[in-house]
Amino acid sequence: MALIPAESLPYFENMIYLPMVIIILERDREEFGKGAFKLKRPYINIIEQSIKAVQKDLKETKFYLRQNNMRIIKGDRDDTCTNYAFYYGGYEQQRRYLNVRLRNRTEELLEMYLAK
Question: Model confidence at 2, in pLDDT bands (50, 70, 90)?
Fold first, then answer.
């Protein structure tokens, strides 16, 4: 029996992925600012719009977690996996995510937000 309802799992995962997406977009914005592009502003605008969209989704996710008394804590990380502890309704569930999966899903989300 799963302690965490299936409808809550995407919110936990958003708390893993969305901060990563923001970090990558902020770094990319800096690189575009320093880059030797003729017209930097269009690229920077796309990145800034994407950051705003991710921040909005992250804010909604944090609100959902707060309303439902949920927490997530990042645990140990090694060369292949990262551990997370999900807390929901007084229960704790340990989950391991392959680092390759974390990278690939972050890349998918990055593409999705940049396409908006």
Answer: low
Terminal-residue alpha carbon distance, the chain: 37
For the whole model, what pTM was predicted? 0.90
For residue 88, the tally of other CB atoms under 10 A from its CB is 21
Distances (CA, A) of 37 to 20, 26, 46, 50, 78: 26, 17, 15, 20, 38
pLDDT attached to residue 1: 45
Q: Which residues pair with 105 in a beta bridge?
A: none
Kindly report the backbone phi and psi dihedral angles of residue 99, in degrees, each rounded to the nearest multiple of 5, phi listed first: -60, -35
Question: Cα 30 to the chain's mean position, in Å?
Answer: 19
Nearest 10 degrees: CA dihedral of 65, 59, 96, 9?
A: 50
Residue from 43, 51, 55 nearest 26 by CA: 51
Tens of pLDDT, residue by residue over 71-103, are: 999 999 999 999 999 999 888 999 999 999 999
